[in-house]
Amino acid sequence: MENPLLLFPQLNISASKDKSYYKVMKSAVKEEPHKASKPGAKQKRNRLSLLLQKPEFHEGDHLGKPGNLTKAASVSPEEAVKWGESFDKLLSEKAGLDAFTKFLKTEFSEENIEFWIACEDYKKSKTAHELLPKAKTIFETFIKKDAPKEVNLDFHTKEVTSQNIGQPLITTFDAAQNTVYRLMEQDSYPRFLRSDPYLNLIKGRNPSRPTLRRRSRSFTVNDFQGARPDFTVW
């Protein structure tokens, strides 16, 4: 019998050529996914670059850190000294209110000043139609049980306030606002005046490096039951 390779010369493919063919094919298969991955990698780098440009990735821009207590408030040492004259003086000035709010953020107790500000805005309502939606928002945010930013109120004040939400008046939150005001005045305000950022401000120095945030022990309403409320501040 004749050699089949002689009858069919087209089948006479050498082993070396066969190996070369598969090597080329294998290389082509590897290159395709590699090329496809390049745009994805580029997109990832672009996304990372955009994220790094966001404010929350910059430590110095975090409002809750003591080092930035007075960053947004360009005040002179003389003006800052006046904040120590009284709590009412501190809150009556925009820069002082801003600095105190940032201080409370470092102690995780900013709900007190946010409630006080909401009550101030509520009392500026010009029509009766504005009162009801604002009253419900304040109640659901700060007063009702397990509210997201529940403030510390005694049982009687909370009950009286709750009963008046259905038909709110301009004075509906006065008792609750006064209670929270007194708690801040006798608890948070003295610590604010002793804080390093405030002391550095009145001395004309740059704020010190931020420290770890901690939640302070807030006094309860019972701690001040002996104190007589003073509504003249309103």
UniProtKB/TrEMBL annotation:
Location of the RGS domain: 86-202
Pfam families in UniProt: RGS (PF00615)
GO terms, biological process: negative regulation of signal transduction
Keywords from the named record: Signal transduction inhibitor
PROSITE patterns according to UniProt: RGS
SMART domains associated with the record: RGS
Name under which the protein is recorded: RGS18 protein
